[in-house]
Amino acid sequence: MSIAARAERRGRPWIMRVVDLGRMAYRKAWAVQEDAHANVLTGDEEMLLIVEHPAVITLGRRGSAIENLISSQQRLEEAGIELVQSDRGGDITLHSPGQIVAYPIIRLVSHKLSVGGYVHRLESAVIEMLGELGICGFTDPKAVGVWVRHQRGSAKICAIGVRIKRGVSMHGLALNVDNDLGLFNHIVPCGLADKSVTSVAELLGDRAPGMEEVKSALVSCLARAFGKGD
Q1: Residue 82 is part of which domain span?
Q2: Cα–Cα nearest to 49, from 1, 99, 110
Q3: CA 102, 162, 124, 147 torsion: positive or negative?
C-alpha cells in the first residue's frame, strides 16, 4: 500500500511517499531500504517505509552488541528467531510481529538536521504520537529511544537506531504496540541490563487501539515532524 503524506514547508507542498510493506523479513526490507535510499540520493521524493518483521534479533555497529545476546544460536533457531548483523547504529534489539518499524529515507540537509537533531526529531514524533494515545513518553539523556514510567521503573517503548549514508537516512525506529515482550528475554535490550521494555498494549490494556490506528497516528506524526518549515 502506498499513500502520500503531505505537509507544508516554506510555503510549498511537501510530499513524502509512505509505503506499508506489511510483514516482511528483515533482510528483504533492508534491500528495499537500499533501493529507496539510492532513489532518494538521485533526487526522488523522500520516503517512509512501514513494516512488521518476523521475529529477528539485530546487532548494531557497536562492538559490544554481541555481548548482550543471552541465548545461544541453537536456542534462537528453536524459537524461530533470526539473528542479523545490521549496519545501523546502536546496540542489540529485537523485532517481532505486533511491533511497528518505521524507516524514514530522508535528506538531512533538506531539513537542516544534524545526525543528533534527526534522532531527537524521531523521538519527538513518537512522544507526540504516544501523547495522542494518552501515554506520557519521555527521553533519557543517557539512552537513545523513547521511555515511559512503568511499575518496574522506566521502560523502553520505542528503540531507535539509524545510519546516515551520503547525507540520507536509513533504518529508524521500532515501536512496541502489541508484540510478545517475552521474546526480549533472549537479549539485554539495547545493552541496558537495568531497564525493561513495555508496549502500548501492556500500558493501556483493553483501552489499547489496534495496530492500524497506531500505525496511522505514527505516520501522521512523522509526516508532520519532517514537513515543518525547518
Answers
A1: 2-225
A2: 1
A3: positive
pTM above 0.85, yes or no: yes
- Report CA-CA distances (Å) from 215 to 93, 121, 178: 20, 18, 12
- Check which CATH number belongs to the domain holding 66 and give it: 3.30.930.10
Residue 38 lies in a domain: yes
Q: Which residue has the cell 537513545?
A: 144
Distances (CA, A) of 150 to 16, 98, 144, 173: 35, 20, 18, 21
For residue 230, being part of any structural domain is answered with no
C-alpha span between 144 and 51 (Å, rounded): 21
Catalytic residues: 190
Question: pLDDT tens digit string along 202-226?
Answer: 999 999 999 999 999 999 999 999 8
CA atoms within 13 A on the CB side of 59: 15
Supply the mean pLDDT for the chain: 90
Question: In the chain, how long is the greatest CA-to-CA distance?
Answer: 56
Q: Are 219 and 50 in contact (CB under 8 A)?
A: yes
Total domains, the chain: 1
